[in-house]
Amino acid sequence: VFVSYVNVLVVRWKGDEIVTFCASIGVLDSGVGGLTVVREMFRQIPQENVIYYGDTARCPYGQREPEEVRRFTFEIMDFLMEQGVKMIVIACNTATAIALNEARVRYSVPVVGVITPGSRAAISATANGRIGVIGTEVTIRSEAYVKEILRINPDLYVRGKACAEFVPIVEAGLSDDPSVYRIVDESVQDFRADEVDVLILGCTHYPLLQSMIARSLGPCVQLINSAEETARDVSAVLSERGLLNQNNSQANHRFCVSGHLERFEAVGREWLQRHITVECVKLD
Ligand code: DGL
Fold first, then answer.
1. Residues 6 or more apart from 18 whose CB is under 8 A from it?
2. Which of 27, 53, 92, 230 to mutate to test the pocket of ligand 1 (most atoms within 8 A of CB)?
């Protein structure tokens, strides 16, 4: 494989034939959560090739030490760079909170995270200036959302809460299970008394529990899923840098995980509404 100087074109020798194709966008998460961002990317920029890495064997990241999250994130980013990606999307709030700034210095390709797009969407959605954020322990402890929202508008009220049980539920494929509702309801009920009118789903796994969260909080609280805004950022950055795929042929996607394939494949099929083939790629 030869990757051209700006990581736009990948050239492969297939027997005597030389095949060229547009470089992929690398997307990473600790597991299935980043697929919520991929779904929006498929909708907004369907011509783009995607290579996804879900670190399912080491998921969840949200209760780990920040240094460990940082190391895992860079291991995955190194792998994606070896595949010749032209951009990387850190489709994980936990990894964005810990590693985004450093990643932007470390890698030569543009790197997009999910916290700024989610914060922006929440700020434009709130009418009463009171915003809630749910996320993993690492994300909430980092205060990345609070800092980003107050940087944009210091007059807003922001309160975060960690929901440690949500990621294992989603990874286990139990997002539709009625028994999960009680856990979801108990976890978000403080936000009712807090009178927030917007709640950021500050973990890319949480949109898979969106209908239960919405049922628990009712119609007065608007839920913000950063996927849509993130995909818009991805498209804007590609266009600004002249990196958009101009090729009209069918996009080609790869899904890699570090753990079991079947569960990921099932959630992926359900969420993306298409069949996906998943490969196991160990990095450690
Ligand atoms: N999906 C991730 C996030 O957005 C990580 C969840 C986890 O592994 O704890 O934070």
1. 11, 12
2. 92
Catalytic residue, candidates 59, 92, 163, 256: 92
First-to-last alpha carbon distance for the chain, in angstroms, is 23
| Pick from 136, 55, 145, 57: nearest CA to 100 | 145
Give the pocket of ligand 1 (CB within 6 Å): 29-30, 33, 59-62, 92-94, 136, 139, 167, 203-205
Catalytic residue among 203, 220, 256, 280: 203
pLDDT in tens, 106-154: 999 999 999 999 999 999 999 999 999 999 999 999 999 999 999 999 9
Rounded to two decimals, what is the model's pTM? Answer: 0.93
User: Going by DSSP bridges, is the β-strand pair 25-29/87-90 parallel, antiparallel, or unpaired?
Assistant: parallel
Strands 87-90 and 111-112: parallel
Instruction: Indicate the residue type of 190.
Output: D
pLDDT in tens, 8-59: 666 666 677 776 778 999 999 999 999 999 999 999 999 999 999 999 999 9
